[in-house]
Amino acid sequence: MQELYATIDLGSNSFHMLTAALVHDEIKILESNSEKVMLAEGLTKKQGIHPQAMQRGLECIARFAQRIENIPPENVRIIGTNTLRAASNAKQFVNQLEKVLKNNSINIVSGIEEARLIYLGVNHSWSNLNQNTKNLVVDIGGGSTEFIVGRNFKLRQAESLRMGCVAFRRFFPENKVTESAFKKAVKAAKFQIANIQKELKTNAWDNVIGSAGTFKAIEKILIQLELSDEGITLKGLKTLKEILLQFDNMDDISIPGLKAPRDQTIIPGVAIALAIFQALKIKKMHISRGGLREGILYDLIGRIKAEDIRQRSISALSQRYHVPEFRSQLLTKISKKLAGNIKTSKSLSLSQENLKFLEWAAQCCRIGLALSHSQYQKHSAYLIKYSELSGFTIKEREVLAAIVKNHRRKLCFTALEEVQISELEIKRLSIVILILRLANIIGQNGKSNQSGHIKIEANSQCFTIVMREKWFAKHHLIGQALELEQDYWRKTGFELVINLKND
């Protein structure tokens, strides 16, 4: 039986869904669906996502949910991008979407993580990529535009700007098309590009590759108008601009190769594209058939079947802040031993993802020492929460930061409660925190071979640590630390019991 996978990209312009199967270790796309939702239409700082856009999104997700209901949740990944990052009412909307999706959660990614996933999708989809060329990938979305420079699968630079084909509709009120409005849109895009222009140009590239719907739509029009055989040129863009400006209103646009509802975003999309070509002095752009949704798919299957890039990010983070390798290895080793000796009810049993977070927290919980020894757990949490960690969603960074913040001293679960995870998951993560705290106490003397006999029993309100009485009597400092632990946990509503047994 084929193992099925699905990815959903909740973009600011369109919602996209891919379903795929792994056949003989090769990914086979089974179905691809896109619906124009225009989530960023009418988006304001105060009011957030417009109710009509919300309704379109909910109706679309209801249809997508039916198609993925028989796929295991661990084989589904749903990503939210710029509008769900920026909107003031994004959390409320995400809650509504997740109710429709039932067992599947939505992951909001940063602009840089979005860029990495786009680059991954392009690398797997554009046949002309090779290891000897450096490539610039550009993706115009509904609310943001990503710029990525890399060679083969190695990403060198990633930038995300708050400009998109739906967001830039604001330059064309009531869908009216004028040359002055078009010039204002181009000028606004160039102003944003100026922030990254110098740095991008120093990272010189051999090829420019366009991803996502806007560039695909432009290429299709240019081919239909016989202005291109393949790809997009600056000359073709300028000609297309003149053709589009002949229309007085977006609703009236009718040109070969352009289908509704793309006519509502093609003019702001062309304005952004023209600004990119002129600002970066691009002569020719190739088009990739793959992008963000394909990148999400390859990243998902990579997590399950091969390397989880998140581990590479944690290793790099630990090295950046000079955590001694023996320390992170010691804490990881003790944590794994304790996690292997834990007994819980079925509902509280730790998932593989919980165990991954335990291991990552053990590896990087000491990075805050690079700033200060006093309250270093808080510094560690801050660095994790606000660092760009490839592969991690914003919520995953917040969860990891909360675990690390609680690995010593006073306990405070407020950070976990603010992440918007279920009460059951908070209880599981409380067990993760207990294991990490216990490992930190035991590992203070630098030895890892003394924790094998320790067992942990956990339920929703009580943790019991079972250990040998003679061993406990020999380790006075550990005993004192555990007595203090009991006070810390009592203040959070948990009971921590120390059960000493004769050998």
TrEMBL record:
Cited SUPFAM superfamilies: Actin-like ATPase domain, HD-domain/PDEase-like
Gene Ontology molecular function terms on file: pyrophosphatase activity
Ppx/GppA phosphatase C-terminal domain: residues covered: 309-486
Pfam families: Ppx-GppA (PF02541), Ppx-GppA_III (PF21447)
Database matches in InterPro entries: ATPase_NBD, GppA/Ppx_hydrolase, Ppx_GppA_C, Ppx_GppA_N, PyroPPase_GppA_Ppx
Keyword hit for Hydrolase: yes
Keyword Transport: no
Annotated ranges, domain Ppx/GppA phosphatase N-terminal: 26-301
Keywords of this entry: Hydrolase
Protein name, UniProt field: Ppx/GppA family phosphatase
Taxonomic source organism: Aliikangiella coralliicola
Native organism taxonomy: Bacteria, Pseudomonadati, Pseudomonadota, Gammaproteobacteria, Oceanospirillales
